[in-house]
Amino acid sequence: MISVLLLNGPNLNMLGKREPEVYGSQTLDDIVGHLEKTMVEEFGGSLTHFQSNHEGDIIDAIHQAMGVHDGIIINPGAFTHYSYAIRDALSSVVLPTIEIHMSNVHAREKFRHHSVIAPIVIGQIVGLGADGYEWALRALVRKIQSSRLG
Question: Where along the sequence does the record put site: Transition state stabilizer (predicted)?
């Protein structure tokens, strides 16, 4: 059974209210519920979700994933651009990780164009809205399954 940790950083608890023209109308609960259902029904696995507006809490969740989860999907929010601490935590647990952003960060303000997380993850999905989470889940599960086969 595959177990995935889904991490969401600052302000993502405001999805559905915060800038719906950028992030859409779905709430974080809507997105998580869909992913949990997909994980169980299609992959026979489990998904654990954690959201925090606090960097240290996200780091603790990453550390606690080691030996518990098979991979991580992370939307670090604004931490994407400067949190070397989250980057180091992800590197330390050696779990396949996909970085996700609902908006196309490369088409937004210049400060959003750079990710300190991207160089240490297996992939990055940007600009697909809430659908990006599902693509990240599918890609991560495939990666985990293929690593178990060979």
Answer: 18
Is the CB of residue 50 less than 8 Å from the CB of residue 8? yes
Contacts of residue 37, defined as CB under 8 A and 6 or more positions apart, other chains included, come to: none
82 is catalytic: no
45: tokens are 């696995």
Please spell the DSSP secondary structure of 69-127, one letter per residue: -SEEEEE-GGGGGT-HHHHHHHHHHT--EEEEESS-GGGS-GGGS--SSGGGSSEEEES
pTM comes to 0.94
Query: Are residues 101 and 34 in contact, defined by beta-carbon separation less than 8 angstroms?
Result: no
Query: Does 142 show up as a binding residue in the annotation?
Result: no
Active site residue: 34, 54, 82, 101, which one?
101
Q: How far apart are CA 123 and CA 106, in angstroms?
A: 15
Domain-wise residue ranges, the chain: 3-24+31-149
Task: Let me know how long the chain is.
Answer: 150
Q: Report the interhelical angle of 84-93 vs 55-65 (nearest 10°).
A: 10
Question: Does the annotation count 84 as an active-site position?
Answer: no
Q: Does domain 3-24+31-149 have CATH number 2.70.98.60?
A: no
